[in-house]
Design brief:
Layout (H helix, E strand, L loop, with lengths): L6 E2 L5 H12 L3 E6 L11 E7 L5 H9 L17 E6 L3 E5 L10 H17 L3 E9 L6 H13 L3 E6 L8 H13 L8 E4 L8 H13 L1
Parallel strand pairs: 1-8, 3-5, 3-6, 6-7, 7-8
Antiparallel strand pairs: 2-4, 4-5
Helix pairs in contact: 1-6, 3-4
Length: about 220
Amino acid sequence: MSGVPFVVDPDPDPELAEAGRLLFAGPVDFLLSAPELHHLPPADRIEVCFAGRSNVGKSSLINALTGRKSIARASNTPGRTQALNFFSMGDRLRLVDLPGYGYAEAPVKLVEQWQATLKGYLAGRPTLRRVFLLIDGRHGAKKVDHEIMELLDRSAVPFQAVLTKADKPAAGTIEKVAEALKTDLARHPAAYPEILTTSSQKHEGLERVRAAVAGLLEL
């Protein structure tokens, strides 16, 4: 995907926007938590996952997208999500909430186990269609984000950057972060050339994420 201009918050195709609305308005059920790779469910349907640094807002975004208050556990405590959490959306799609990365205050062996499971899933899941890589809109991409991007490049797994907490930065900050992110992403061949900005608290940008997920079912 290198060489393709990156755009921020493109308007979704109306048909995909409606398909995304219907998809996320349908059944969404917690399936299982997989603390290690041998606990993963069968790779028998399309999966999309949400990855990002600890406390970037993965669980909050999943709750907002699905219109459920607590289907994914959200917490102000970094590192609370300690397993890959799978959610079924009908018989064609699963959403996956990954453990946060880059949090080093848990016991070292536990952190190493989380990271090994996360990286093993990202590098080797045959039904994984896209990683939605969440990046804090207040701070932009950090070194640990680029380490995950490089892993996805090597594994040929497409990822799409989603800026979270768009309601939090001072005026103009989110635009500057998005412009800097364009330059960062241009170095990563697995990066999908559309950046989405979201606010789970204000329900901003959700329709674009829903449309992006729905589009993967059309491929």
